[in-house]
Amino acid sequence: MFAGGIPFAFGGGGARFVNMGGMPGGMPGGMPGGMPNDKEVDTTKLYEALGIEKSASGRDIKRAYMKLARTAHPDRGGDPEKFKEIQHAYSILSDEDKRKLYDEHGEEGVEAGGRPGGGDPFEAMFGGGRRRRGPPKSEPTVHQLAVKLEHIYEGKTVRMAVTRDLFEEDSSGDIMTRDGTRYRRKQERKVLTVHIEKGMRNGHKIVFPGDGDVLPGHEAGDVIFVLKQQDHPVFQRKGGDLIMKKKISLFEALTGVSFVLEHLDGHKVRIQSAPGQVLSDETVQQVPDEGLPIFGHSSYMKGVLFVQFDVEMPTKLEFTEAQKRALGMLLGATPPGAAGAASAATSGEAAAEEEFIETKVLQEADMEARKAREDLANEAEGSDSDEGGPGGQRVQCASH
Questions:
Q1: Do 254 and 163 fall within a single domain?
Q2: Which portions of the chain have biased composition (kind: Acidic residues) (predicted)?
């Protein structure tokens, strides 16, 4: 027993506090570290937000969240505030430690980390926190992995050969540690299978725990691949969205624009302005669901394609077909679709190809919906960081 009468018990999981109910001047009963719990706390609100019972498993929580996200997301016409509540509930209940704190002490306990200021009781009492046991870990080996925007759109699996250093104890070795032990250095080649998932961010870390160098007296380090996104000639990336610039004539701006875009995976989509719409210079319009897959939600959600038009024009004009033809003659332009229609009339192959082109109408850019999609991707990035820091990802490898 320590001075001051603070009892400890040992065994099983090491040192632990014994609950004394209420220590004078120190640790009252209730939340660990002295947070009182003499008032009732709500520990059901977050479960109700997801429509699940408190006994729900981790898989049930994720399934409920995914189901609600499909209908409650602002892109699907849902209420943004309601969607934020659903996201908040999932961020806590999907984390085992946070869920335990919530079940015991409500949201206030989660915010405090179970203790005022989220501190460590060992550190507060003895001047130092609990330290990592066992040998130190070797430094990670970091490689940059160049990826094309097409790989991020479709996903890709690559096999990467890496070489790691190992040190074997050898009395004749040319490497000696401070304690006089000699080692011989050797190298081992491994082949790692790297899965580039749809929608991964530039700078995302893919971590292979324990596949890195093994220094004397150390645990094996990690191998980390950091994605380095390459520039694309047509598209720029902004989070889960794509941006492209499109030059159009004044005639197209006044009478309507229509063009066929070949996307990153080869599929074609016809993009056209809404009837009667006038496109001014630097106007930005969006094409829904033609952005990148949203990381962590790629099976059902994509960003948008923003199109910025480069043209000078009046703010709004409407023309009759006769006026369009007259203006076309003045401007020396061909009305949209006229040349294509004539060609298609004489070419069965061109007409058949037209049947496989999907037509989508431009919409006003919705920045609130874009923010909600980015929040989802940021949440998914953080959930994969157990081993590799922000954006980390645990994977299996194939060794040869």
A1: no
A2: 377-387
